[in-house]
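SEVERITY: medium
COMPONENT: batch folding queue
REPORTER: lab tech (J.R.)

DESCRIPTION
The queue accepted two submissions in a row. Attaching both inputs and their returned structure tokens so the on-call engineer can compare them side by side.

ATTACHMENT 1
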Amino acid sequence: MERREFLKHAALGTASLASPARSALGMIGANDRVNLGLVGAGGRGRLLMGLAAAIPNVQFVAVCDLFPPQANAAQQSAGPRCRTYNDFRKLLEQKDLDAVLIATPDHWHSIPMILACKAGKDVYVEKPLAYSIKEGRAMADAARENRRVVQVGTQHRSAPHFRQVEHIIQSGQLGPVHFVRVWNYLNLSPEGLGRTPDSDPPPGLDWDFYLGPAPSVPFNKNRFLRTYRWFWDYAGGMTTDFGTHRFDTVHQVMHADSPLAVMGWGRRYELNDGADVPDTLQVTYEYPGFVLSYEASMLNGHGVGAQGVGRKYYGAVGSDDRPHGIAFYGTNGSLFADRIGFEVYPEPRGSSVPGLGSNSNNVGGWRTERVQVTGEDATGLHLKNFIDCVRSREKPAADIETGHRSTIVPHLGNISIRTGHKLRWDQAKEEIIDDPKASSLLFRQARKPWDEILRL
């Protein structure tokens, strides 16, 4: 696309500012229909579409995807009144559009979201919020400057059982908590993604547009669709993809919003498949009052045990397996939580070391009660919260600033791994302190012509 033509399209993408959507004027009533558009119609996008369409008085009037099979599948689900686009800027020109769901690969979150805000549309954007920390700040600024409702897809915020976990920790029932552990495990060994040669893109796919702000490389099927997340060019691997949800929950439960220091280790030890994010990693975060340990493996799927009786987590390989989760270790007990519930395991009264007091024989009783609570994935509730806030103009459960701060955490972990440096973080300035090499990874210069929109 010629640069002049590109800038023309970019300007058109914000043209509706002159005649904003109903939501920009606060004119959507509690019972009025909300018209949605979908940008990114892959598996996750179509899941969001189905859940949102089930909310009363919600309809999809536009879908956009660069890959025709995905765009067509989404359009068929929405019905004949839904228009289909292969350029999100054209979608944003549609006058009857109130809000947009963005479920693209990570490197395509910021530009559509910023232009949607400028076009007077509210936005639900999948996690991680942004490809880089400075992109996240630009997105938060765009939402604030244009007075948009923006929900980040960290759906744990809408889960009732995680609010119960927050109450248990904040009420002191678990005792003081100074250590928190987060983990994500899956097994891609021995071949990982497998090696595949570069080739021509599938028919109908504009590969250069798909790359967008990312570096120009030949088409390779491993860089496309679900496996894009294992390449630094488009995402941040396990840490940003899976970790972001759980870092956000740690912030919610511990009433924290920023680490003070970060140190991480990791590399691609075993998987020799052309991808470049670590297959094994560990990151330690220092917060005011507690230490957070994050670990991830692509070489083993077990994670930890302590799964509740009769409950099986998605991706589990054993009856007692918990491949993803969060553990809060208090002086009164330990709390293990994931998307489908949580358990509290009490500590014995006195010391648990034989010879220093009560031990596992439980002579003195327990410091708290054994608890097991069943929950479920809250994506549908999270979307409903977004739609409610589009109508009411209230702040959603995972508003843009909340999502931005939670997404900073995995990005800092990856920066520490990639540089080998211990990082000190200034949250007020959103700066890494006295480390030019690490600071250079706070952003990436967008490839032309997208740099005209994403100026960092």
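ATTACHMENT 2
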Amino acid sequence: MKQLSIALILYGDNGSTRNALVDDGFKGLADALVEAGFNVESVLYHPSNAKKIQTHLEHFDGIMSWVEPKDRVERGEDGLNFDEVLLNLSQRGVLVSTHPEVIFKIGTKKVLYSTRGMDWGGNVEFYPNYEDFKKRFLSSLDKSSVRILKQHRGSSGSGIFKVRFVDDEKKSIRVKPAISAESERILGVDEFFAAFKQYFENGGLIVNQQWADGIKNGMVRVYLTGTKVSGFGYQETVALCPETNDPNKIRPISKRFYFSEDCGLFQDLREIMEEKWISELQRIHSISNDMMPLLWDIDLFIDEVNAIRAEEKYTLCEINVSGVSPFPPSCSSHIAKVLLTRL
């Protein structure tokens, strides 16, 4: 029997020294795959070499990628972008994680809208075009005073904003980006809509989520491999979290701590994920078990700290299904096992 081969794909040009086999963020996974019997290679992706890289990757049995959304859509001289490379590889029989079709189903901010009826859901709207946004957004701000606007695809807080009226006259709007280095702006209504028009270019859309007061309690990140929980992360302070005594000031983002899937603090969450929420997510979006990503995560705000039932405790913040890094060490062995099963 031939040795199965796995490519771990990072973003970088020809001069980059990035290597998943020695990088602290990926070495544990590479070692677990080698221990499981795989031949593992680190591959750098750059749009300028998309066709050449695709040809090289056709010789692998499976690939995992950590290419960010902003780098996935860029086209090189051969006209290919990264999503097209992955689709071509999948059609040639290479196992691709995460598959672009799955990314568009559950890996964009629209998943907040499609799952709004689940236990973790809430008051969410989405605007498929700029005209719809201009027509309906202000009425949502009237109803709940603070909203979070999120662009369709993004990472590391890009395109996410806390939005509220400046005062009762409702002629000006406060806009605070989730990226901490960017300052809050006060815009007139017309200025506000002009500033957000860019997020509808090239088929983009915006999701509008009611502000979650549970942000003050921190956020739990559930890491999953396929349909099973493989680890947890907890972060006490995340982007846009206000100071306790001054809601106009933002607390600095804190470190995330990692735990295995067996951590006793989160067993209620593990149980409802594996017994109910994951299957509901799959059913809503028509995703089979063998198409679920090898590494993905679900971010949840803690609404009711002492709630007895998990259904009442958490609100969905977002789902990440591509470029998930860093991740708990416990995930690596799970990924290796699932890969062996699928291949």
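NOTES FROM REPORTER
The mean pLDDT is 94.
No errors were logged for either attachment.
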